[in-house]
């Protein structure tokens, strides 16, 4: 997607909003880090099992992520509008 997509209705470019990009990335990483940390701490799970879980986790995330992004008609970087 590279941060932009054509709107099917108005044929203008739409960009992923920075706020949406931050929160989706944050929750995606926390959805993996927190359970794996919990499993390692309380059940003494080996790192090998966690690395084996990555091929299961990544396709699920890639399928679900596009539904959580919010698009904007302006491109912003570091809070400033970019042309």
What global shape is seen? elongated
Q: How many DSSP E strands?
A: 5
Query: How much strand content do the residues show?
Result: 15-25%
Q: So what's the oligomer here?
A: single chain
Structural class: alpha+beta
**Poorly predicted segments:** none
Cα Rg: 17 Å
Q: How large is the count of helical segments? A: 2
Whole-number average pLDDT? 78
- Estimate percent helicity: 40-55%
* Strand order within the widest beta sheet: 1-2-3
Distance between the termini: 18 Å
> Could you give a short account of the major beta sheet?
3 strands, antiparallel
How does this structure look, described?
It is a single chain. With 83 residues, the protein is an alpha+beta fold. The strands form 2 sheets. The chain has a 3-stranded antiparallel sheet with strand order 1-2-3. A two-stranded antiparallel sheet has the order 4-5.
